[in-house]
Amino acid sequence: MSSNNSSFIVESPPNAHEIVDLTTTTSPTLHITSPSGDDFSSITNEFTTERVCRLLSKNPENYKVIKNTKNNLTSICWNLFGIPTRKILGTEEFEPIQGFVSCESCFQTYAFSSTSGTRVLNSHTCVQKFSSGTRKRSSSESGTNHQMKLETITKSYKDVRLPEKPINIIKELTCKWVCQDMRPFSIVEDIGLENLLQEFINIGATYGKINVKNVLRGADVVAKQVYKLADDYRAELRELLKEPYENNCICVSPDMWSDPYKQISYMGISISFTDKNFIYKSVDICCRPYLQQDHTGSNILLSIQQCLEPFGLIDFDKLTFVSDRGPNLVCALRRYNTLFCYPHRLNNILKRSFFQTERQEKKKKDISSEIQSKNFTGNITANNTINSSSNDGDDSCSPSTSSSDDDDDVGKTQPLLPIKYKKNNKNELLMSKSVNDPRKMKSKDLHPSAQQIINTITRCKNLVRYVKKSGCNKDIQSNGGVALQQSTVVRWLSLINLLESIVRSYKATKRVLINRKQNSKLNGIDVEILKELIRLLKPFKHILKIVQTTNTPSLYMVLICTLMLRKTLGSFEELLEFHQSEPPTNDSIDDENSNSHAIEDTIESEGIQILRLRILELLNMMFELDVRHYASTLLHPRYRKLKDCTKTEREQTYTYIRKCMKEIEKEDKKKQQQDREPPQKKRKLAQSFLQQFEDDSDYEQSIDGDDVDGNEDFSMNLPKVDELARYSAMEIDKSTLTNNPLDFWRINQNDFPLLSRVARQIHSIPASSAAVERQFSGAGLVINERRTSLHPDQVDNILFIRSMQKMKLAE
């Protein structure tokens, strides 16, 4: 069997001659310069994972593993995995072997690129051992004593290197399985399959050779067990949520979705919470069929209540909600503590900025006119059906339509801390005198130079539409390009992905279109304009990626990202500085002269300037920061000074946090009074007037403060050094801080008993509803053409068990 150089899954072992050549330091094939483009493909063809692993273990003088020094690495696997390197001939320096990562402990090597995930690396044996050791150390440092389970003590496996024959048999059986049952190749990397096979090996070691049919059960038995396991997990989660629920540390993200096959509407809910150990967790608690008659706000609220009731989440005043600005969701949650999804807001701003909503409005008008024509011809039944569905609102079925364009004008949930900004005189270039509100501005009112850019975006969409329908993407990829991606108004990063794919594949696309005599599709598409647009949208792409995390707190990023956007969009020089400060990535669209080109090209086209200022104006108009955004940033020890914020903003943030601390203090007093009802003191007969004014306890005095007589005019406002003041003046070694603010509050909760509880509440709120959006992506994988008969309750069970398993693995 010949080996395929382009595949890293199945490799044939090299012969002896190849081994000698590779391990000889004088071999000319070892010298690599500037590994990019064709050179990179030659490297990946020269090395395989087995060769790199063998060289690291047998030739440590010339090959070693170095740490991956990128700043945005958050996965635990990078504590052990690094970049394999080899010594440059004639020097003492090492150069990286691109396309691979290796374990520093056992030298196990995997193929890896910027688009690869870390799931396989996290399932590596050394990483699992490191993770378990880290959890044990963190539990001992936090002062919590956990009894070690017997199964944890006895679960140690031999690290045996098997001969080639059984390995080849397993490979062959795996290939037959994935081909016969049409399973994806990645199924062999599933952690669940690995646990199942490991348990089979344990059973075989205990009972000897047995028939596997005595162990496996049928589909009906597995389906019943799914119901049981889901119920057990729900009971477990209910107990886990009791303490965060009582301390107002739970945030709920609801949304709606419909499957594309049976068109069943689902209510999906994800929650995030911070437990008593200051650990942030996120779980998808339900994806249940929506059984209400219509999609009004009251019925949506009723559906949310029915979904949360099994978990004991009854009092909505103790919860915080994060959702998009779909009119029906806003109406349902208007009486409760609600924040809006930050990426949804940015996406709506970009839609307005580039007039993407005009096309939607035209489609709606076309549909309404078509309905009217059908009604005129006598098709009354069809007309009533469509009208009734349209009256339900665009958010009735899918998460994409739940965030409709009309949500930009929804103002029922006002932020607690509105910010006012001065108008920029430069914005007068944007519109004619007859247009006052940029949200209502039409593309025809733009300056001709800006209209040309909008038309360029439309031509790009038409090009991608033709490429997809004609099947040209395969030819473009075979010519060295990447597949062109279409832009949709409901996907947050789709517009910049569209532009980047065209720029990266422009030459390959042009060759393919010329061969098909369709090169006219490129008319009116200027690559330089596309690069300017990409540069303008780069800050949004960077922000939308970092705020969508669901494993760590993210609300504190909203204020920082908003200030950064205002600064970056304020001038072309700031935009250039941001573009140059970003580290280069493998998917960069610029050529090798990009840095010098960006420095020399300091001229901003008139159309891009108009669009940049329009985006800035819409950002200030359509998005208002909430006091909780400021509070979450202040409660991150790295940003506690609220840099670039005004004195008024800081003072209002301090007032809000102190108000929260006072509420927690009063709640504690009420609980203590309920727990112990002290007997009334017997008044002494001969009691001096001095004794009548003595304090009952120091605790009550600290709560009552100066509000004894309810008159603030005569209260003594003595300066108090409370927890917030001590936190602001605290000297903190920044080198000990992590990106997760809860790590700081877990360590310092005894020094700041009230402020740490406020931090728990604030940091349990995510910046986005990305968790429930990802749940719907998983639901789309569960419900496919081969599983249309799957019961909706089982869909809910499958997604819930999956989410609970992910939460358990993250612990």
Automatic annotation (TrEMBL):
Protein name listed in UniProt: HAT C-terminal dimerisation domain-containing protein
Pfam families reported in the protein's UniProt record: DBD_Tnp_Hermes (PF10683), Dimer_Tnp_hAT (PF05699)
Bias (Low complexity) ranges: 379-403
Domain of life: Eukaryota
Region Disordered: start-end pairs: 379-418
Domain Hermes trasposase DNA-binding: 174-216
PANTHER family: ZINC FINGER BED DOMAIN-CONTAINING PROTEIN 39, ZINC FINGER BED DOMAIN-CONTAINING PROTEIN 4
Entry's Gene Ontology molecular function annotations: protein dimerization activity; zinc ion binding
Domain HAT C-terminal dimerisation per the UniProt entry, residue ranges: 724-803
Cellular localisation: Nucleus
Main location per the UniProt record: nucleus
Keywords: Metal-binding, Nucleus, Zinc, Zinc-finger
GO terms under cellular component: nucleus
Lineage: Eukaryota, Metazoa, Spiralia, Gnathifera, Rotifera
